[in-house]
Design a protein that fits this description.
The chain is mainly alpha-helical and 76 residues long. It contains two helices and no strands.
Length: 76
């Protein structure tokens, strides 16, 4: 049996570091989606390139919170 590859848990401790009580959900819009009434075709999923482990996309917590508050905020 081969050993499993070791991956660092980049999310370890993040939930304890965030004050979730200061956030709230706010409805911004309700929309109906209407599709055209005709035959359509969806392109297949590309199978070239194979699978590889991509470098995780990291950002500063302050940028994540700023983006979250811009989208869902209005919190003084």
């Amino acid at each position: 049996m081969l050993p499993a590859p070791r991956e660092d848990d980049l999310s370890k401790g993040i939930l304890e570091a965030i004050d979730k009580d200061s956030y709230r959900v706010e409805k911004q819009a309700a929309q109906r989606v209407q599709l055209a009434d005709h035959d359509a075709e969806i392109d297949p999923i590309p199978t070239d390139g194979g699978r590889r482990n991509a470098e995780p996309e990291l950002d500063l917590l302050s940028n994540i919170i700023r983006s979250f508050n811009d989208l869902f905020g209005n919190i003084a």
